[in-house]
What we know:
By secondary structure, this protein is α+β, with helices and mostly antiparallel strands. It has helices at residues 5-31, 55-71, 80-85, 108-112, 182-188, 204-213, 226-239, 267-280; strands at residues 43-48, 51-54, 76-79, 99-106, 119-126, 129-137, 142-147, 151-154, 157-158, 170-174, 196-200, 218-221, 242-245, 261-264.
Amino acid sequence: MIKDSGTIDEFLARHASDVEESIREAAAQEIMPRWRRLAEHEVDLKTGPHDLVTDADRKAELYLTEALVALLPGSVVVGEEAVHANPASYEAIRGEAPVWIVDPVDGTRQFVHGDTGFCTLVALARRGVLYASWTFAPARHQLATAVRGKGAYLDGERLHSGSPEPGRDLRVATSHPDYTTNEQKRALLGLWTEGVAPRSCGSAGLEYLAVARGESDATAFSWEAAWDHAAGLLLVEEAGGTHLTRAGEPFCITGGNTLPFTAARDAATARRVAGLLSDGS
Length: 281
């Protein structure tokens, strides 16, 4: 079993391309053949009308679980669908073993509707530290990757998040109201102010990619599920951005965060958004 960060770095140097290949294969075999071809019996509800799961989610997660653990013996997988079936399995994210954090189809609602706005998210972490991430949008033929300390890339091109243009409204993607508590709704209302242009988010992974590319200025999310955030948080960090909770602290993938939180193109934007979230509560 990998026991230190140096060994994780060595694993990534040897096998990052193998992880990428596994992700591409999961999409090719289990996701894309079902895109725009889903039968009614292949789509189910989980917690509500906006929380969908499909056979593509389940089968792609199973494929990735087998492939990733084979690449890194002794590692474990925390996947959205496995945790839904067994909530206690989420605790592995706080354990000693390297953990693969997997969202097989992020943006399932978009996937079900035949839109291109979905992706597969994979991150490798240990004891709350993110080491690498992959964001693959197969319908858009885009792959974004990040390795701690080595930058973020989209299809081989280095990503730089930059800073918002002075004088322009901040473009901020926010949580859907259906997924917020009353307290979080009040906090998010702080964004409805002069100089900010909030909008409801789509796929979390693609919203993080938009921030890393400088196409969006920030996110404001109200939930902690690591599979939605881990890959994107590292991508934004390695592109030059940062993240803060409403308490002014970095978001922690192992939980205990003061929500909502923001990921932003630069530190100044993160502080501004976090401040607005605090003022709105």
